[in-house]
Amino acid sequence: MMKKLALTTALGALVAGAGYAQGIDVKLGVLNDRSGVYADLSGEGSVVAARMAVEDFKAADKGLNVEIISADHQNKPDIGSSIANRWYDEEGVNAILDVPTSSVALAVADITAEKNGVLIDSGAGSTALTREQCRPTTIHWTYDTAALANGTGAAMTNAGGKKWFFLTADYAFGHSLQENTAAVVEENGGEVLGTVDVPFPANDFSSFLLQAQGSGADVIGLANAGGDTVNAIKQASEFGITQAGQKLAALLFFVTDVHALGAQTAQGLSLTEAFYWDQNDTTRAWSKRFMDTHGAQPTMVQAGVYSGTMAYLAAVEAVGSTDGKAVAAKMKETEIDDPLFGKVTVRGDGRAIHDMYLFEVKSPDQSTGEWDLYNQISTISGEDAFLPMLDECDFTKQ
Amino acid sequence: MFELLGISPQVLLGQLLLGLINGSFYAVLSLGLAVIFGLLNIINFAHGALYMAGAFVAWMLLHYLGIGYWPSLILAPLIVGAFGIVLERTMLSRLYHLDHLYGLLLTFGLALIIQGLFRHYYGVSGLPYRIPDILSGGHNLGFMFLPNYRAWVVVASVLVCFGTWFTIEKTRLGAYLRAATENPALVSAFGINVPLLIMLTYGFGVALAGFAGVLAAPIYSVNPNMGADLIIVVFAVVVIGGMGSILGAIVTGYMLGIIEGLTRVFYPEGSAVVIFVIMAIVLLIKPEGLFGRTA
Question: Are residues A114 and A52 part of one domain?
Answer without folding.
Answer: yes
